[in-house]
Every structure is written in C-alpha cells, then in structure tokens.
Amino acid sequence: QHLIQVINPNTNVAMTHTIAEAARSVAAPSSEIIAVCSSQGVESIEGHFDEAIAAIGVLEQIKLGKEQGVSGHVIACFGDPGLLAARELASGPVIGIAEAAMHVATLVATRFSIVTTLPRTVIIARHLLRQYGFEHHCAALHAIDLPVLALEDGTGLAQLKVRERCIQAMKEDNSGAIVLGCGGMANLARELTSELGIPVIDGVTAAVKMVESLIALGVGTSKHGDLAYPNKKPLSGCFDMLS
Ligand SMILES: O=C(O)C[C@H]1NC(=O)NC1=O
Hints:
Elements (H helix, E strand, L loop, with lengths): L1 E7 L4 H14 L4 E7 L10 H21 L3 E4 L7 H7 L4 E3 H12 L3 E5 L5 H11 L5 E6 L13 H16 L4 E4 L8 H8 L3 E2 L1 H15 L26
Parallel strand pairs: 1-2, 1-3, 3-4, 5-6, 5-7, 7-8
Helix pairs in contact: 1-8, 2-3, 4-8
Bound molecules: [(4R)-2,5-dioxoimidazolidin-4-yl]acetic acid.
C-alpha cells in the first residue's frame, strides 16, 4: 500500500473534492489517495500573484505529506505552482498536473490544444510549455473566460463552455488531443473524450498514474544537484512552519 498525496494548492473545498474523486477514480488498489488543499492562501489561482501565494501552501503540504510517509505527491493546479521547490523538499516523486497532461498528450498526438479558464492564465501555461519543452507541440491555447470557481458553482455553465471550446479547438487547431487546463475540470475528460472522439486529457488523473509508475520503478526525486534538500537555515516569521 502506497500513500499518494494530491494537493489542491487553492483553498476551495469543493474543488478539492472534485480533484480527489478524479484521483481516486484511476488510483491502483495499492494506492491510497490523501487529498489535501492549502491551509491558507487563495480560494482560486488565477495569475502570477496567486501562484506565488499558492506555492507556499504547496510546500507546507509537501512537508506534512513527508511526515505522514507518503510515497509521492501531485500538485493539482494547472500552473504547477512551487513544483521545483516542492521537489527540493520531497524524496518521492512530485508531478504537476500541467506537465503530466502535456506529457500524456505528446504520447498520443503530435500536437495538442489547451483549454483553460481565464485569458490571463494562458501566459502561465505558455511559460510551462517553454519550461517543459513542449512549445512546438501545443497548437493553441483557449480560455473559457470564466473564473476558476465557476467550475464549482453548480450552474454547469463553465462545463458547457469547456465543451464548446473543445469542439472549437477540434475544428480550428488541427491538433490531435486536448489538454484540460484546470484541476477543477478533472471530472470532464472521460465524457468529452467519448463524446468528441478526441483524447481530452486531464492532468490530475495523468499525474496520479505517473506518480504510481515512478513509485513502481523505484524512482524518487533526484537529490543529486539542484533538487537536493534545501540548505539548512533558520526560517523566520510565518515560514517557520516550513523548517
Ligand atoms: O490556472 C487555471 O486556470 C486553473 C488553476 N487555478 C486553480 O485554482 N486551479 C487550477 O488548476
């Protein structure tokens, strides 16, 4: 039995539940999903400011997960906030949902489109494409132009918009797969894949299976070089919780 920690970096409980359900829907019988969210910070992550705040929440949860003996971690926000910092802290694998979804898309298509929430977060996905080396694999990025928490408001409007943008991407982008650009979209991928006849990929489920694979391979985060544990030093003020 392996514990896999799935971290929603925002503080929204409903979205944490959506993410947890998706993670558990694909987890192997040998995996136990520990779903958590940041204990403080932002209720949704919609830009650079939010990402910076969320990264601290991620690090706090990574530390707690380590103390609980988890075997691996998922950062369940499409900005992959705090990913490399989390890898310094962690000994097991740490996978962000954006990198996971992008990797899976490149395994089944030569080019993919991304459908995310607010237009202002598109640049964050662009930065990740460059950082991960997938810039030339991404045909286009689309935003439904609704706030992240519209996905949890119960009206179904955001889900309708995601479907519309996926259909538009299929028609316009000449890409073979679509990546859903938000942890809160995790429960939409299977239905959209079968309805639209194109791989619609969610990063939460992709990341859970990648963490499981790395655990099975006996591959943890490298502690050789820049992802070694952080240099020991006193952490003052509110950061004391990270020491
Ligand atoms: O960047 C986005 O639009 C989505 C991102 N924000 C958030 O609170 N969870 C996420 O996955």
